[in-house]
Amino acid sequence: MSIQVSKPAPRFTMEAFHGDEFTSVSLDDYKGKWLVLFFYPLDFTFVCPTEIKALSQAYDEFKKRGADVVGCSVDSKHTHKAWANDGLGKIRFPLMSDLNHRVSRDYGVLDEDLGHSLRGTFIIDPDGIVRWQVVHDTDIGRNIDEVLRVLDALQAGGLCAVNWRPGETLLKG
């Protein structure tokens, strides 16, 4: 399966850790909502907890925009729980387990040689269409403010110039 902006997001249903419990998470759970789906390499690493904590701290900003957040790595749900209990802390969104690498492969973020995901961020609209994707090297953390800015721009309903911010005029086409 190949992922492409403006096309339907690959469907998934996975086990996850959320709050203090194990659960199941599906793309269908977010029908009618905006979804920020992000992939990260592995639990118990260096850059990943900085991103996950920052996304959790910004969770209310995503919710204000009618968006939800879901994380995914190739670790098990049990590893996610152990990580949360060993310093990551309480995260406000689910961390999904892609042990068989199927979803990471479907979203084009799996580094087959290393056996884990690259850093990938996808914004999926309420109709299940991929509207934005960024995939990059594992050594660089993503910019949460930029994800929020892009979400705002997608929701603005028009043409947004470079460095556009909410409240600025949209371009006329």
Can you put this structure into words, describing what you see?
The protein is an alpha+beta fold and 173 residues long. The chain has a single domain, classed as Glutaredoxin, CATH 3.40.30.10. Helix content is 27%, strand content 26%. It contains 5 helices and 9 strands. The protein has a 7-stranded mixed sheet. β8 and β9 form a beta hairpin. The longest helix has 13 residues, at 144-156. The radius of gyration is 16 Å and the shape is globular. The mean pLDDT is 96.
Secondary structure topology:
Blueprint: E1 13-18, E2 21-26, E3 34-39, H1 48-57, H2 59-64, E4 67-73, H3 77-88, E5 95-97, H4 102-106, E6 110-111, E7 116-117, E8 119-124, E9 130-136, H5 144-156
Parallel strand pairs: 3-4, 4-5
Antiparallel strand pairs: 1-2, 1-5, 3-8, 6-7, 8-9
| Oligomeric form | single chain
What characteristic shape results from the CA principal axes? globular
> Order of strands across the widest beta sheet?
2-1-5-4-3-8-9
Largest sheet: 7 strands, mixed
List the helices and strands in order: EEEHHEHEHEEEEH
Kindly report the CATH topology: Glutaredoxin
Query: How many domains is the backbone divided into?
Result: 1
**CATH-defined superfamily:** Glutaredoxin
CATH class: Alpha Beta
SS content category? alpha+beta
Annotation field: number of helices = 5
Average predicted local confidence, pLDDT: 96
Uncertain runs: none
Radius of gyration: 16 Å
Q: At CATH's second level, what is the architecture?
A: 3-Layer(aba) Sandwich
**Euclidean distance between termini CA atoms:** 34 Å
SS strand fraction: 25-35%
| Strand runs, count | 9
Helix content: 25-40%
